[in-house]
Amino acid sequence: MIDFRDFSFKYKKSEDFALKEINLSIEKGEFVGIIGNSGAGKSTFTYALNGIIPHHFEGDFYGEVNVNGLDTVESSPSQLALSVGSVFQDIDGQMVSSVVEDEILFGLENFGVPHEDIEKRITDILKMVGIEELRYRNISTLSGGQKQKVAIAAVAALMPDILVLDEPTAELDPQSSLQIYNMLRMLNEKMKITIIVVEQKIMLLSEFSKRLLIINEGSIFLDGKPHEVLKDT
Ligand code: ADP
Ligand code: ADP
Question: For this UniProt entry, what's an example GO CC term (predicted)?
Answer without folding.
Answer: ATP-binding cassette (ABC) transporter complex
